[in-house]
Amino acid sequence: SELAVLQKRGKEVTEEELIQIALKQHWYEEEKGTPLKYIGKLVESFGLKVERRFCREINELFRELEQGHDVIEQEEFEDRWIGEIPDHVVLVRNIDYSEPPRVEVYDVAMEEPVRYYPLDCFIDSWKDSKYYMISIK
Q: pTM of the prediction?
C-alpha cells in the first residue's frame, strides 16, 4: 500500500528498495510483516506527512478521501475463521455512494489488486482494528 502511495506521488522507488529500508529500520519482519505501529513509516521516510488515529466514525475516513489524502486502513476479512483480529492493510481509493454503497480498495496482495466491497462489509472488517487509519497528506 505504501509503494502505491509513493508511486502515485511521483516517487521513483521499487518494492525491493522499500523492503530493504523497512528491514534496516526494523519496520518489517519477513515472517510477520509490518506491525501496525510502523505502517506509514516508509512514506514518512520520503517526506510525506502521516497521521495515525483510531476513528470515531466512518465519516472521518470519507473526509480524508474528499480532501485528496491517501488512506491506509487495517482490515480483516476472515472473522468467522480466525476471530476479530486485524491482519492486513489496504489502500482505500474511493467511496462509491450508489445503491448499495461500496468501497474501492487497492490490495497489492490480491491477484486483482483493485477490489470493491459493500460498505457494511468494509466497516465490519475495519472494526477489527478499532477503526485504525493512516492518512497521508
A: 0.76
CA–centroid distance for 130 within its chain: 14
3-state secondary structure of 87: coil
The grid coordinates of residue 137 equal 497528506
Number of Cβ within a 10 Å radius of residue 112: 6
**What H or E segment, with its residue span, contains residue 4?**
helix 2-8
d(CA 45, CA 130): 26
Handedness of CA 52, 58, 59, 65 (dihedral sign): positive
Are the C-beta atoms of residues 84 and 128 closer than 8 Å to each other?
Answer: yes
Q: Residues of the chain with pLDDT > 70: what percent?
A: 89
**Beta strands at 88-96 and 114-118: parallel, antiparallel or unpaired:** unpaired
How does pLDDT run across 14-43, given as a tens digit for each residue? 999 999 999 999 998 877 778 888 989 999
Pairing mode of beta strands 50-54, 70-75:
unpaired
- Type of residue numbered 96: D
